[in-house]
Structure formats: C-alpha cells, structure tokens
Amino acid sequence: MTQSQEDYAVTQRVLVNDALYKRIAKTVTAMTLLKEADPELKQQLASDLRAYRLMLTKLKLQKSMNAQEVEKLNAQAGEASQETERLQQTTAELEAQLAEARRIQQQKKQYTDLTSELLRPYKVEVTLTREKEPSAIKEEEKAGVRGEEEEEEETAPMPAVASRSHTPQTEDSPRRHGDEDETEEADNDDDDEDVEMKDEDADNSMDIDDEDEEITVPEYETYNEIINAHLFRTRAEAAQLNQELEQDIADLKVTNSQYEATWQQRRHRFLEIIASLHTFQGDIQTEKAEQERRAAEREEEEKKRQEEDDNADDNDGENGNGDE
C-alpha cells in the first residue's frame, strides 16, 4: 500500500462528516443568535443529529466487521508463518543430510583411491613374477643339467676303454680305430639322453608355470572384483540417496512457494475488502448527504410556499378591509 492510499484510508476512516458537521455548527450558531427558539431550527438540528448518530452506528458496525476480518487474516498469517518455518527447518535438515551423504560419498571415493593404491604394488609384483618365473626356471634347469653332465663326465667309469688301452696289441686284436668308433657312439647316446632330459625338464617347468598361473591370478582377480562390486553398490546407493534428497528439497521449495503465493493472494483479497469497505463508506456518506440536501431543499420549498400562502392571505385580508 502506497503513502497516498494510506492517507486516503485514514481520511475515509474519520468519523466526522465535514458537511454535516458544518451544517450542525451553522444551525447551532443561528439558534444562539435568536432570542426565541425556532422550532424549525430545532427540527433541523434533531434531524442532523439523528443522521450523525446513524452514521456513527454504521461506522462502528463496519469497524467491528473489519476487526473480525483482520483477526481472521492474522490467524491465517500466523499459521502460514508457522508452516513456512517448519518447511524451512525441514529444508535445513534435508540439506544437512545431503551434505552428510556427500561427505560419506567423498570418503568412500578416497577409500577407493587408497585401496587401489595399496593393491597396485601387489598386482605389479604378481605380473612381474609371472613374467620372470619361466625364464628363471629355465636358466636354473639349464645350469642344473650342465652341472649333472659335468658330474657324470667326471664320475663315469671307462672300463672298456681302459682295458683296451692296457691290453697288449697282437696280430689277432682289432684295430684301434674301431675302439674310437665305439666311444663316439656311446657319447652320442649320452647326448641324446641329455637332450631328452632337457625336454622333459622344460615341459615340467611349463607345467609348473601353468599351475602357478591357475592358483594365484584368479584369487587376485576375484578379490578385486569383490572390491569393485562393493564400491559400485555403495556408490549407486549414495547416488540414489542424493537424488531422493534433492527431489525432497525441490518438493519442499515448491510447497513453500505455493504457501507464499496463497498468502499473497489472501493479503491482496484483504486489501480489496478494505478498499471496498472504504468505497461503501464513502457511498453511504454521499447518499446521506444527498438525502439531507434534498430534505433541506424540500423544507425550503415548503417554507417558501407557506410564506407565499401567508402573504396571499394577508393581501386578501387587506383587500377585504379596503372594500369595506
């Protein structure tokens, strides 16, 4: 409500009608100036006072109605304020829950990163072990085979060759180059056996690698999958909780805006009622003033007519006396 509207409302609420008050004051002044009481002035003053009392009664009734309406609207405003406070408190609680959920989500993310950092060295170690084990085993097997060959060469007895070397040569004995051929064939057989042993050792080493791979790697992959599944589930639950909290906050904001809109509508309606009451009050005052003006005009016309009749009677009496 602007300042001009407030001034107009205050002016309309004044109980004294200026026109009626001035007329009453004029009548009272005229009565005080007369030496004798004038019945017409008394009647006019009584009529003005009755109109004034009627106006006061109407204004008092209107004032009581306005007071009841104001109390009702104040009660509604108090209820709306309490509901708004409750909504604000609920909104604050939901915002606190949302902040707590975000904090928990951040901690879970940090825990996930820390877990990944802690498990990464183990993964690298397993990978390097899987890459290095075959070559190391092969080198150890080769070294072991060489050592066995050297020990066999050092400890292996040579009876046939020694007997032939110490046996005296005769005409019936075989030639020495035949003995050399037999020695070469024995060496070739030993080499074949060594190659077969190396192949078997290599196959065994591959089997060992396969067994290690089957035992260690699936355990690590299963543990990692379990951690990832748990973290994914907790993240999904946190995301769902955040979404629900955001939806609740949005609903509360919509409800709060609806309450505010309802309060504004009621306040606008209250102002319209006050304005209509002021207009009704002005119409009543205008109508009353118009009725009083018409009554005064009728009284003046009757007074003039009565004076004319009196003058006519006086003239008739004077004419009759002159004729006599």
TrEMBL record:
Q: Could you identify this protein by its name?
A: Tho complex subunit 7-domain-containing protein
Q: Where is the composition biased (Basic and acidic residues)?
A: 132-147, 285-307
Coiled-coil spans are: 70-114, 235-262
Q: Which family does it belong to?
A: Belongs to the THOC7 family.
> Per the UniProt entry, what species is this protein from, by scientific name?
Yarrowia lipolytica (Candida lipolytica)
Alphabetized UniProt keyword annotations: Coiled coil, Nucleus
Region ranges (Disordered): 132-216, 280-324
Q: Where in the cell is it found?
A: Nucleus
PANTHER family according to UniProt: MAINTENANCE OF KILLER 16 MAK16 PROTEIN-RELATED, THO COMPLEX SUBUNIT 7 HOMOLOG
Per the record, the major location class is nucleus
